[in-house]
Amino acid sequence: MYRYDEFDHAFVTARVAEYSDQVKRRVSGELTEEQFRPLRLMNGVYLQLHAYMLRIAIPYGTLNARQMRRLARIARVYDKGYGHFTTRQNIQFNWPALSDTPAILQELAEVEMHAIQTSGNCIRNVTADHFAGATVDEVADPRPYAEILRQWSSLHPEFSYLPRKFKIAVTASEADRAAIQVHDIGLHLKRNAAGETGFAVYAGGGQGRTPMVAKLVNPFVAERDLLSYVTAIMRVYNLYGRRDNKYKARIKILVHEIGLDAFRNEVDAEWAMIRDSELVLPEADVRAIQSYFAPPMLQDRPEGILVLADAFQRSAAFKAWVRQNCDEHVHPDHAIVTISLKAIGAVPGDASAEQMDVVADLAERFGHDEIRVSHEQNLVLPHVAKADLPAVHEMLARHGLAESNAGLISDIIACPGLDYCALATARSIPVAQAISTRFADLEYQREIGELKVKISGCINACGHHHVGHIGILGIEKRGEEHYQVTLGGAADAATAVGEIVGPGFSAEELPEKIEVIVSTYMSNRASKEERFIDYVRRAGLTPFKQALYGTVGEAA
Amino acid sequence: MAELYTQAGFAADTAAEPLALADFLAAPGNATSVLLEPDARLEGLVPHLGQLERIVIRFPKFNDGRGYSLAARLRLHHGYQGVLRATGDVLIDQVQYFFRQGFDELLISHAPTLKRLKDNPAPVHHVFGQADVPGRDAAPAFGHAYSWRRASP
Questions:
Q1: What is the CATH code of the structural domain delimited by A304-398?
Q2: Within this chain, domains A142-291 and A413-549 share the same CATH topology
Q3: Where are chain A's structural domains?
Q4: Which of A5, A103, A365, B91 has the most crowded Cβ, counting Cβ within 10 A?
């Protein structure tokens, strides 16, 4: 993974000094809250319902054991002993004191981490496929490009006061585990017919109150042009994005209002002026960054197959976990392990300091010192020998981390909701817990198959409900929490925004209604191979409407 | 009372009042300075850049970043060599962004910012990840010399 050199150290050290000074000025009253706000936001400090929240960047979701242990330490020393992994591959601490935040940033700097641009109207943490560098289906590792974009976008003088926040995601796989089409810019790493590396560039995707699937702006931008092309998009957006209404300020609205052709023309005109500027990406620099991401030296461990066969016989639970939570690795003797942070009834994405230490230990002992955070709020050990899986599983199970539900109905994405968030209109976490508890039976979950449930506690859609196979949006209606259900959303290669199935439900009704939706699918699917999302695409919403709202006595 | 701050420190403001863009375009004459609002279109101005000694870009709010992109286009696309001045809601925490973006001078009204600049300068960054900004940056003397890296003096 990327390692800081002197340049990066100088950079984060200066940032900590600057931020410490800003906090001092805020505490002394020199800065008003309005003036302090964008400064703290650009350092990841939010004011939540009950306290400040600190969001720490985990660039493209990659970290090592030492960094994970430092996060555990921060959870213990400065917070209440846990942290929350987010849908942008970051971690949030919900209870730090404002006066402690400079010290936390200093602790992070010591392990080559920071909180720069995890909020504010700037370019946010660049995200990437959490299986990058390990999966069989990628063109190349997308993370070096995410790292280049991270360095380029940090404290960019021109793009620090954009109309609104700006999110970039990179994938190198047709399966698109990075959900690039719901990002402001989505980059799909490809090779053209001549074998050259470049990017299909999407822009204008996003969720929030106006969900939009990104448009393909350019089918192939060569590697050398990455920074100039992205700069061109940013400059057009910075100048012409709306600033009169924060709800219409994202780039998706600009693309929508002026139209894709006009937007593309603006970008191309800008690009023509800067394409051969200092922004050209020299091949040697790309290779130098790529060398940090060289795959670990994986040894052949052919005994893995026998070890697994033997362990399967002894433990059905282990077998279920391998089937559900382990994915194919580019080296056949290894596997990609998903560590579920979605134990039945738990808070999605939360991990205790102890659990973080356990994951750090496992990464060191069995995982070539690499950990990933997925946008589905789970952790990943990307390089584990199959022969070591029983030991890894045993340790995970001992610490409540071996739920075999990756991709199943209880692997729920949920925003913090009204339990923490000042913007929320309803709670998300208890709803996620109730649904997960309702479907606790793992065998039934497996029978249902892949089903992505995503829950947001307000229209800002941090829980990605628009792209959930089942999406749940909590709103406030006459003083009551009320939940609207959408079906058919997806954030993969076939990204789509879900459709509202009908009138919403109370928190009490919701788990039962979700069960009705699932039963409708189960009794109508063509076969087990037809996934929930496939069925919704084929059958539409009618069968679900009938089952949910059909009159009493009518055959469901 | 607004004061003028440059990379070399405070300086006397001897500049003439700039013309609003519309007034300038209506009768450029031999006017030598113009005031741009954040939504200014540069097309009409470009043929006259040679006669301008000073372009003033107004920042009605510190968090309206359009003026930075106007500055980028003036310097990078159109080769404008004259003085670039920022005016309006210019605060201490944006000072280094302005200088990096190619502004030469800042007309500052915000009292705490003025006091702060006089008492002790804000901590500033000296290393950056952008090679194309028009400020006076050079390749950094340490770390890997990636093309996008720059250091300010």
A1: 3.90.480.20
A2: yes
A3: 6-110, 142-291, 304-398, 413-549
A4: B91
Chain A residues 115-144 with a CB less than 8 Å from chain B:
121
- Residue A441 burial (CB < 10 Å; 0-12/13-18/19+)? exposed
CB contact A158 to B (< 8 Å): yes
Residue A474 near residue A456, CB atoms below 8 Å: yes
| Overall CATH class of domain A413-549 | alpha beta
Residue A148 has φ and ψ, to the nearest 5°, of -60, -45
Question: What torsion do the CA atoms of A69, A75, A81, A85 make, to the nearest 10 degrees?
Answer: -80
Is domain A6-110 classified as CATH 3.40.50.10260?
no
Cα separation of A87 and A222, whole Å?
A: 29
Domain locations along chain B: 3-124
Q: How many residues does chain B have?
A: 153
Architecture in CATH for domain A142-291: 2-Layer Sandwich (3.30)
- pLDDT tens digit sequence for B57-114: 999 999 999 999 999 999 999 999 999 999 999 998 899 899 999 999 999 999 988 9
Q: What is the CATH number of domain B3-124?
A: 3.20.20
Nearest Cα to Cα of residue A492 among A454, A442, A443, A528: A454
Best of A8, A15, A161 to disrupt the B interface by mutation (most B CBs within 10 Å)? A161
Q: Is A238 an interface residue toward B (CB < 8 Å)? A: yes
- The beta-strand segments (E) located in A64-141 are 82-85, 91-93, 127-128
Q: Do A157 and B131 touch (CB under 8 A)?
A: no
Contact B93 A39 (CB under 8 A): yes
Residue A19 host element (H or E) = helix A6-28
Query: What's the pLDDT tens digit per position in A512-540?
Result: 999 999 999 999 999 999 999 999 999 99
> CA–CA separation, A82 vs A72, rounded Å?
7
On the CB side of B15, how many CA atoms lie within 13 Å of its CA?
A: 25
Instruction: Name the residue among A10, A35, A274 with its Cβ closest to that of B126.
Output: A10
Which among A206, A313, A218 has a CA at the least distance from the CA of A270?
Answer: A218
Q: What is the pLDDT of residues A369-406, one digit of tens each?
A: 999 999 999 999 999 999 999 999 999 999 999 999 99
Q: What is the 3-state secondary structure (H, E, C) of A451-508?
A: CCEEEECCCCCCCCHHHCCEEEEEEEECCEEEEEEEECCECCCCCECCEECCCCEECC
The Cα–Cα gap between B17 and B14 comes to: 9
Which residues of chain A are within 8 Å of residue B132 when distances are taken between CB atoms?
231, 274, 277-279
CB-based contact A239 B96, cutoff 8 Å: no
Instruction: Please name the residue that has the structure tokens 């300068």.
Output: B121
Chain B interface test: which of A238, A239, A254, A270 (most B C-beta within 10 Å): A239
Provide the shortest C-alpha distance from residue A319 to chain B (in Å). 47
Residues of B in contact with A285 (CB under 8 A): 146-148
ipTM above 0.90, yes or no: yes
